[in-house]
Amino acid sequence: MNDSLVRINSSFVSERINKIRFVEEEQQQLEPTNFLTASSENKNNVKFWKMTKNKYADEFVENEYIPKVLSKLTLDGDESTGLEIIDHNNFAVSCGSNVFIIYINRDANIIRQNFKFSNIHSFKTTDSALCTGISVFGENISTIGEDGKINILSANSQKVVTSLEKTDSVTQTAVRFINYKELITGNRLGILKTFDLRSGKRDPSSVFEISSQDQKKCYGVTSIIHHPTQSHIILSGSEEGSITVYDLRNPSFPASYLCSHNFAITELMFHPTQPDKLFSASSNGELWKWTQNMMQNITQDYDGNNQVDSINSWLNGERAKNKISITTMLSGLRKSITSIDCSKQTRLICSSNNEAVYVIDNSF
Fold this sequence. Notes:
The chain is an all-beta fold. It contains one helix and 30 strands. The protein has one helix spanning 320-323, and strands spanning 7-12, 17-23, 34-39, 44-53, 65-75, 80-85, 90-95, 98-105, 110-117, 131-137, 140-145, 150-154, 159-164, 172-179, 182-187, 191-196, 206-209, 221-226, 233-238, 242-247, 256-259, 265-270, 277-282, 287-292, 295-300, 306-311, 324-330, 337-342, 348-352, 356-361.
């Protein structure tokens, strides 16, 4: 077998998974073989998996790995909506109106609930509101919900650090830390808002909206990410299937608008160590890889010497389409890809509503 070829390993797991994340190895140069999933078909189950070698694999059997459940944890709540890594052994999981800190005991291969933030989202009627998304920066966890509230939680002190009430009048659908002091949210009407967490105010520092082909329609924000090395570059996926790019240094107008998938984008993710690679998943079962080519702008200083500045391709409007190549990694699943993750090397993993998990090796 040629190790340089892209290999796709698909496994039926008999449940619909909402979120999936790799558990990185202690030796960072190794590809991860463990991963966590959060599902909510019957109960909110968080499972710790290991990809074991398929002893029956040969040239006629495609599946090199078989996922095996090492540990399972059932959590309180109506629906699993978020799963993010805090550190090497701790993850944050949102279920219903609660957020849980999950600890992985690597020696015993088990997971356990370390702490629970209870009912951190609720309506005026005191009824629980769904926590619709989480984001992690260091020890801090940001949460958004149906109630338009933003919470900042501390995983270390296990306390609610900040609560900003009524930051939105409609359901918030996506959240992302830009840095330790700034946060960006998106809602179901396609509105993006940035917040300065140092001010403690619920009023956003800036407000703008995603683009669409039909300006008479509103499409909800489904995913928000920032560029790994240039955090002022924000990419937002939408229910339309498009990606809107903003430069937060000048958010008056979108820097780029890319018509991509024909169905809603479910998740966007940059590669953690190679920022020129972006992955997007959609509700019609497509997984794409975007590879950007840095543009160079040659200018002259006062002495007539040439200076070369690198221009990020995502900020080049219509020209961005010619500077970014797209490769289809998965297609034809006919069911939504619900979540994706990529290792620090070349391995991808994703979950689908067809109750399968896909592991892609040598993806670039």
